Amino acid sequence: MSAIFGRVSFDSQSIARDSFDVAFSTLDDWGKDGRSVLHKENASFGHQKLALKASEVEDVQLFEQDGLCILADAVIDNRGDLSERLDIPSESRVSDCQLILFAFLRWGEECAQYLVGDFAFAIWNIHSGEFFAARDIAGARPFFYSKYGSQFLFSTTVEAIANTPDIDFDIDESRVAFFLIHPLQAHENPFLKGIDFLPPGHTLTASTRELKVSRYWFPENIKQAEPASLDEYAAQLRGLIEQAIQDRVCVEHPTGSHISGGLDSTGVTVLAHRLLRQAGSQLDMAYTWAPPINDEYPLAQDDFDERAEIAALGKREGFHYAFGTANASDYFRFFKRNLAIENSADLFEEQPLMEQAASRGTRVMLSGWGADECVSFSLRGYPSWLLSNRRFKDLFRMARYQGGGLRNPLGIARFLFRDALLPFLPDRVYSAFSPYLNMKKIECLGHPDFLAQYPEAARQTSSIWRDAKDPRSMQCSLLMNGHIATRMSLWSTWAGPLGIQYRYPLMDKRLLEFSLSLPPDMLWQKRRSRIVYRKAMIDALPERASKHDVANETKRKKIRLDCWQELNQQYDKFANVDCPWLEMGALINKIKSAPENLEKFDLLDFIPLHSSIRVLELWRHSTCVKKHDNSIDIS
Fold this sequence. Notes:
Helices cover 38% and strands 14% of the residues. It is α+β, with helices and mostly antiparallel strands.
């Protein structure tokens, strides 16, 4: 794992070292195992290293060969296969960075197709001045860039680029407008004009002539697997999952993992602990956002409680676990973070978790994030696929079970209409009957005059706002939508300075492509969804696995209520603030309408308050240098 920063001048002008050093210094906390810098006449590159293995400390970064210079934030997981393809002897000590460069020398701009792992890298041709970059298919490693005249900058973080002293980056107000109108649609694109992100599964080429971003991974083109039984598919999946986890655990440093009552994080945690024990180590800690069992959050008596399942699983497998510690103070800390150098994902609970893991020396954090979209995909699109293939009996059997049985004809009819027929209907009809949250019901506190300047913000929609007509299309839309990488990018920004790398076994390229190749009928077998994954992990999962976390949701609501009530106590601080992006009178009224208790709290009422306070802090960060009398302090 690394943090990288670079600057290239395509017109051969020299790069000012002091300007480069200022920007690169924002990444100093990332370099737990050293830093390296390379200055050429018209290019400068910097690398901050975090080694996951002792051997990586000696790996050479800023590697040069045959007139090419490579800078990589990468962990390559198919080293054996790649070395064999590149005719590199297995005993050769070749770093991941060198492997990528050798792959580029062999396959050119198609090299990323042959890589498995988490990576974002840049290759500069010293002689021609041409620049090439690529990012892994999941987006586990971020890559931001900016082309400013003849200058090209790139980095692991927005902050490094934004802190380049001789280039000014203004707030992208169209991005602000989009966030106010669509607060739940988290995107990776920065809030600064002129700074872009390289999407997952894409490459970038830049030169004096052009800048081109191209897609290299096409999940929709993956061929269907050869016919096999459920047991055979499950066995293949289990082998791939174990390989993906084995490639990502860290034996030489503490490894942590996420855990909940759900299928994905539970499976990853159990197998990671078992694999580490086989290597003479163990999982250092499994972390959950759910609160500890206490008087405030007692154990559910007559309902599923994921905390009881986590405790039982920890006892069965012998791993340690830690309950969530997030509170209202953490939310206020999150509020005050500068949105200009991060993205808009709402994941404040992860910050105290990271800090706890860092205090234990954790270097790798495993997460099951992203699995719902593919490896443990549910049923979205499958009923419509049955209908389009005229498999009416199979569809009715499924509807009978999902709808509540023959004694519930309305439930059956509702399932058939919503899950099978509705995806075929026009957008206007779909939106009227959509089973998903209608974003128009969420209040927007943006100033009308400001929003009127960006009418396109209201028209933009997510590619996954409606179900597709078949499961493969739905999976591909989910994988390419961007929300997966948005969370990964944010966690990378937070975790890097703490010396932690997040890794996502269930987003392994080999796993994704195998899961996408499965026949649609493998989504529903024996009246169960996610059946291939369940069968593959049957010995790892508890008898009951569910993401039905009532205590955690209660805690999250209580934290937000506490924040709302605290803001209400200090609403007068907002009275003289004149943020042009917000209808301040409406915001103050929203603050003053804080519910008295949890029973009256409605999350949909809180969402616009959340987005507005974050935008207000963004405005404050962008103006406080020039003007102090309008600054506010929320604490």
